[in-house]
Amino acid sequence: MSNGSKKYFVHPTAVVEEGAEIGEGTRIWHFAHIRKGAKIGKNCNIGKDVYIDVSVEIGDNVKIQNGVSVYRGVKIEDDVFLGPHMTFTNDLYPRSFNEDWEVVPTLVKKGASIGANATIVCGVTIGEYAMVGAGAVVTKDVPPFGLVYGNPARLKGFVCYCGRKLEKIVGEDEEHVIFKCSHCGREVKIKKEDYQRYLREKDL
Known about the structure:
By secondary structure, the chain is mostly beta strands. The protein has a single domain, classed as Hexapeptide repeat proteins (UDP N-Acetylglucosamine Acyltransferase, domain 1, 3 Solenoid), CATH 2.160.10.10. Helix content is 5%, strand content 32%. The protein has one helix at 192-201; strands spanning 9-10, 15-16, 21-22, 27-28, 33-34, 39-40, 45-46, 51-52, 57-58, 63-64, 69-70, 74-76, 81-82, 87-88, 106-108, 113-114, 119-120, 125-126, 131-132, 137-138, 146-149, 154-158, 168-172, 176-180, 187-191. The strands form five sheets. A nine-stranded mixed beta sheet has the order 1-4-7-10-13-16-19-21-22. The chain has a six-stranded parallel beta sheet with strand order 3-6-9-12-15-18, with no helix packed on it. Strands 2-5-8-11 form a four-stranded parallel beta sheet, with no helix packed on it. The termini are far apart.
C-alpha cells in the first residue's frame, strides 16, 4: 500500500495526522500514531505502537522499534536506531497538575543506537555513533562513539562505526586517542577528554 500519490507506506491501522511530513520510502506499521507537525525523513522504519509527538524531527534511515514514544522536544538525526520500548522524557519536574511546564530538549546524533528498555532523561545529547546499552538510564551526555550502560549509565568504553567495542589503541595526536577496530579495521579518533572520562567512570 502506498499513501495515494505519496511514496511511503502507512499500515491501515496507523494514524498519520494532517500536517505531518513523511519522507519517501518510509514505512509506518501497525497502530503507530504520527502527530501533526512531525517531520520524518526518508527510508525510515516506524514499528508497531510507535508514537511520534507534535513537531518532532526525525532524520533519514532511522529505525524505531516497537513501543517507542518520541515526545515533543526530541530530535533524532540520520541513521539512528531506537530499540524496543526504550523511553524518552521531556519534563524534568513532572506533575500531573503543572500548567506551566517546560519542554526540555534531547538530541540523538547521527548513527547512535539506543538499546531496548533504556530510558533517556531529557536534556542530554547522545553523541554520534554512541551505543546505549539495554535497560540503561541515561542522565548526562554521551560522547561520540561512547558505550554507556547501567543505572545511572556510566561510560564503559567506546564503539566503532560497526558497533563493536574498541579495544586496541594504535596511537594518539594532540587532541585524540586513536583506536583500531578488530572487527572491521577502521580507525576511530576519541577525544582525550572523553577518554579521561572513561577512565574515571569505567569501574564505577
